[in-house]
């Protein structure tokens, strides 16, 4: 049997059997491997790091999209930085948004995801409300004059091209591109293995946003038990509205999510005491 080994951390590796390699190539920016695994279905790995699998990607995509969109309640214009697989775009377009712009550095990730992982985006790239731009997210944020209700940072980890998406300067620039009441959500790694990453994201967002709150999602193929995301906006309470409010807003999602519910939204912000260092801005 052939094995794929993801060695993200010292003294720890995750190994998945490769039933079949569907694609393997080095793009201008990164190594792209798409393979089939008997448990997780199709797997996309960039530079040797699992980005998503067919079986569990919905948990990540629903939580990065629906938590900020439902907390906002009336988002019309949404920006996604990264997310070239289209999974976050698919979830965003379940809301009655007028426009969703996806800015992905590596056009080949979009093309390959559409070809080999069409179920992840589920036709979202062809939705008339979607605009797809192939360029660096930091350059886009610096140059655009557009304002958004919600910005989602669906990036790789802060190594290589993704690093610039984790800086205080980038979050400050994102803040200027938000309309009043606007929210941002950021993929922030596995806190068990990468506590510094979560601390950095929270601290840097706190430089630009009055309300900063980490929340958790269990994604089996992201090693370390829980994936951390961080939501930020003008007020901390706005990120976790009461269940009653979330239920009233849930109409467009009714029967269209497999993981997200208003109860899961609220529970995701309930953190163990060991997370206290990360919520010091509360
Ligand atoms: N859900 C995934 C995870 O956390 O493992 C990440 C999904 S998505 C595949 C990440 C994307 O971010 C990649 O396709 C990568 O090319 C893109 N990306 C990295 N740096 C970027 C940048 N500076 N601007 C725009 N996109 C970027």
Q: What would you say this structure looks like, in words?
A:
The protein contains nine helices and 13 strands. Helix 6 crosses helix 7 (195-206). The model has no long low-confidence stretch (mean pLDDT 96). It has helices spanning 57-72, 87-92, 107-116, 118-121, 137-143, 168-176, 195-206, 243-249, 262-268; strands at residues 2-9, 12-18, 20-26, 31-37, 41-46, 49-53, 77-82, 99-104, 130-134, 148-154, 178-187, 211-217, 227-233. It is α/β, with parallel strands linked by helices. The chain folds into two domains: 2-53, Spermidine Synthase, Chain: A, domain 2; 57-279, 3-Layer(aba) Sandwich (Rossmann fold), CATH 3.40.50. The active site is at 154 (proton acceptor).
- Strand arrangement within the widest β-sheet reads 9-8-7-10-11-13-12
**Helical coverage, percent range:** 25-40%
Shape category? globular
What number is the mean pLDDT?
96
Number of helices: 9
Bound molecules: S-adenosylmethionine
In percent, how much strand structure appears in the residues? 25-35%
CATH superfamily of the largest domain: Vaccinia Virus protein VP39
Tally of domains: 2
Structural class: alpha/beta
- Count of DSSP strands: 13
The CATH topology label of the largest domain is Rossmann fold
The topology string of helices and strands comes to EEEEEEHEHEHHEHEHEHEEHH
Radius of gyration: 18 Å
CATH architecture annotation name of the largest domain:
3-Layer(aba) Sandwich
Would you identify the regions where 5 or more consecutive residues have pLDDT less than 50?
none
Distance between the terminal alpha carbons, to the nearest Å?
49 Å
Characterize the biggest β-sheet: 7 strands, mixed
